[in-house]
Amino acid sequence: MQSMGPSGGARPEAADVSGLGGAARDTPRGPSRDGTAGATRRAGDGPARAADTAGVPTSLGGASSPGDLMWQVSPPGSMYDYIKVASFSIGPDGLVDQWSLRAEQLFGISAERAVGMDPIEAFIDPDRREEGQRKMAEVLDGREWTGVVPFRVPGPEGAEGLAEVYVMPTTVEGGERAAVCIVVDVRTLRRIETDLAASQAIFGQCPFGFLLIDTDLRVRRANQRFASIYGGHVDDHRGRGVHDYLRSPEAERVEATLRRVLETGDSITDMHITGFVPGSEERRDWSVNLYRVHSGTGRPIGIAWLAIDITARRAAAREAASARRNLALLNEVGSRIGNTLDLETTARELLDVVVPGFCDLAAVDLYQGLLAGDETPPGLADGSAELRRVAFASAVSDAPFVGGPAPVAVGSVHHYPFNSPCADALRTARPQQVPEEGSLVQTTLAVPMVAHDTVVGLVQFSRAKGSEPFGERDRMLAVELAARAAVSIDNARLYRREHERALILQRSLLPPGDPEASGLDIACRYLPGNAATEVGGDWFDVIELPGHRTALVVGDVMGRGLRAAVAMGELRTAVRTLALLDLEPAEVLSALDEIARGLGTPAGVQQASRTAAGRPRDKDLAEVYLATCVYAVYDSVTRRCTFANAGHLPPVLVEPGESALMLDVPPGMPLGVGGEPFEEVEVELPEGALLALYTDGLVESRDHPLDEGLQAFVGALTDPARQTALPMVSRPAADSSRSLEDICDHVLNTLDTHHGEDDIALLMARVQGLPADSVGDWVLPREPRSVGRAREYARARLTSWDLEPLVDTAELLVSELVTNALRYGEGEIRLRLLLDRTLVCEVWDAGLVQPRRRRARDTDEGGRGLQLVGLLSAGWGSRRTPRGKTVWFELPLPGGETGLTDPAEALLSLF
């Protein structure tokens, strides 16, 4: 091929297409010292010139396409695929006269622009141009020069580069001196050098097995790590194939994978291979990464193999999978058992989880003493106490679970022999292996159920023949399963015990089921909001007072559960104590408010928290007790009822023939708040009227407002047969012939009580006043003969009541009380006899001094009257009245459980 020079003459041009580089190379134009000739490009040469096409890749097939600038037979694939080499020539005038295609690629300047340029002015920095001109003159004078030159590409951006330049002088036609320049990109060379060093370091120092496999699937190169695993020197592995390292069929699978990677170029990541190292039968696991390796022209030259030993990791993964299964089993046990707090149900729930997830058969035995509710720790020290089989499960058909010398049925009571593994497990609180002979069971674990250092029973896990035997991990899991079930069973036992205690506490704090009161028919209901413990803070009480009077109490301690029940018990006891002092209702609530404020103070806190300045006690050290309460005192003689309210809901009254209505009783402040006095309201109750006291749990709910609940309660107290026909304002009162028990049930069934939201207490009383013929009432003047008249009135009235056995005693005691009223009292005297379930005698006067019983000495002439009253009566006392005081005594009726005291013996006992 030829190219045209500046003069238009033809010049010889050689195309270097040797097999080393896989591309044409620029060589000096014309003769040089080594006698070579170079192919160059001058300005005006067309792109069809194919001699100078170094660096342009060809297709992998070897034949160039019509548009390629390079022709060759096959891609040889050498270092020249990576190295950028370019050439250009300089004429005698020191200007570029020929510019190769490689120069265009390296410098980014076309031949049309480069030819005629001064290379010193174009590429050398200004501060080095003088030296460059001197070097160029030397070259044109016939001297060769080689060096590394930084260059700047002409243009606005001024890109910088670093080139290794070979400048060789030559002679053109006419004998003038010229030069041929060969330029190599230094940065490319250094990058190749770095890549080679890095590749060698990575391949040699890689901690994993590294192989380079050629296209024939033979090992071309192995690193030291691979050789250390399979033995020998790294060179000993050259030429080996997959079958030299792996056994069939694993070798066939890996070889097929290698061929697929070589053909498709798709990489393989984390391919697991199982094999054996030489001289060992220990199974090893590797994770292999495969990817295809290419030459600079993109031709596949082999496969890179990177192997990591994951034997320990696979073992850890299997252990982790087993641990996950065990944790899942434990989690299921924790979520499914112990929800019912029932012993037998908890045992069955355990077996529902472990069969067949953990074993094929299982059975649970619990100590009989535990099931019977004994307080002592169940079981004997030697493990031979009686047990009851409470649960059994099997995933194997027709496989009986023996667990002893004879089959044990569910529900039967049995015990294990002293020398048996099961008894040993109970005795030592350690799991034992139970030998099985001649059965379908392969292995059995007898695991004691231990909770809080107490053995509560035994669980047996069995696996049938064909299943994997229990290992050490299984034994540990069995112990954990049994322990969790034991805790749930022990919790169920403790719950049952505490539940029974809570019921005893609640029942002891509430009045008996059928409280009795003079002039009242009583019915009551109590529903705790806490269905688990059946205790709460609501309470009611019926307290008999002197003079055939009755105190009705309903209260509600804020809160729920056992704490509220304890607070309720304290307040109820205080109410009964205050009621027996015969205080007015408002006084009772005032004293109860003081007590409630002091209940939350721990012992010693109030005194210790006060300072010399008198500051109040620390509020953080006290627990506030708040409660609401309504207190009513009913007098069966007058049928009048006095109410006092401490923040409670109003009582409801149903008069005969009238609609039910809520009494207007001032609510006052709740107990424990303090600072405000309580008011009293007195209401006269007609015969047959119905009085209802209740707590807010009956009428209050999240689903409806309080007013709606109160109206529903008022409506429920009417006749249900006519509720649908009449509006609420005109509904008649509940039929007085209906029993109070039926009315209570009707109210609870009618109202949407939402049981469980709050405690419910309901106290209903029907008024049955004392008949007029059962009352004797006389006013006596303040004179000595009134004592005799009082005896006469008493004798006559007792005789009319057919109470002759009480006449003598009643006369004596009436005489004593009237005499005391004359001697120590003031104003006129009133005598009243009341007959109901007992006989009550009351003596009224205007004096404020309360009688006090004292023991008289033998020489005293008086002071024995009240002693005599105390000896002969069933009870006596005094109370204040709005206009003085009342002294009373009570006698049991003849034929009752309590007999009369002989007056003569009582008199003799005084001396």
UniProtKB/TrEMBL annotation:
It comes from Streptomyces graminofaciens. InterPro entries: Bact_Sigma-Reg, GAF, GAF-like_dom_sf, HATPase_C_sf, HATPase_dom, PAS, PAS-like_dom_sf, PAS_4. Keywords: Hydrolase. PANTHER family: STAGE II SPORULATION PROTEIN E, STAGE II SPORULATION PROTEIN E-RELATED. Residues 88-143, 210-265 form the PAS domain. Residues 1-69 are annotated as: Disordered. This is Stage II sporulation protein E. The lineage of its organism: Bacteria, Bacillati, Actinomycetota, Actinomycetes, Kitasatosporales. Residues 33-55 have a biased composition (Low complexity). Pfam families: GAF, HATPase_c_2, PAS_4, SpoIIE.
